[in-house]
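Task card 7
Instruction: Convert sequence to structure tokens.
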Amino acid sequence: MPFCSSCGAQITEEARFCTGCGQPLAGAVPPAPPVDRLDYTIQGDNLQVARVRLKAGQQVYAEAGKMVYKTASVQWETRMTGETLGDKLLGALRRTVTGESLFLTYFQAVDAPGEVGFAGNYPGRIQVFELAAGQSILAQRDAFLFAQPGVQLSVALVKKLGAGFFGGEGFILEKLTGPGSVFIHAGGDFVEFDLKAGEVLHVDTGCIVAFDEPVEYDIQFVGGIKTAIFGGEGLFLATLRGPGKVLIQSMTLQKMRRELAPMRSGGDERGPLGALGGIFNSED
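Output:
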């Protein structure tokens, strides 16, 4: 089935406007050709490495600085994405607001098969998503590790003001749209939920790693005043309403830094004003 080139929503053959974003359709985009699946393994426990075995001519792109090793048959090139100078500058600006570097590094096995390995910058796990054409996930800033060339990396704004201020992820999320395999990294261990329509999950702010685009993301007050002051979880909880899959992490980068900081007083509690710390950005 064709899909909208603006938002990736599926559309009918005779549609003139996209039902997802309302944009006029200059012509339905034909279904994407099948993506050549990656041959990979993820090794390790909480210090994981993704080992990707590339066929001759196969390519992946990664966040700058995430490569661990590569064989000699794999060529690499760091560049901005986009066809024109304007596209490249716009893409660089978008990547800057998500906390990523200005450049992406492309790895390709040219004349013979090769292997390349990627890892995150701190203890955690790697999760892979196999995205169909037009399918999107939203991920926390700095979660992107690497992906196939068919995956589009862009920016998504948090729709609800309260979630942007107090949800723990800031106003900017990474949007990853298929087709292809995409790998993300976050701290600690992962727990995955498959929410049914209308099902709600309450999550400690900052612990959300990624979720399907149809999932509604918001915040709510923790409850009574006593719970807010002495519960140790701050003033708000993030709420996720299905349908869709949700991935959460057991250890955020902020918690890790707090535990490793010298002269800390002990405990993992956050005061009621701690929820205000990540209003404009989030480093988790």
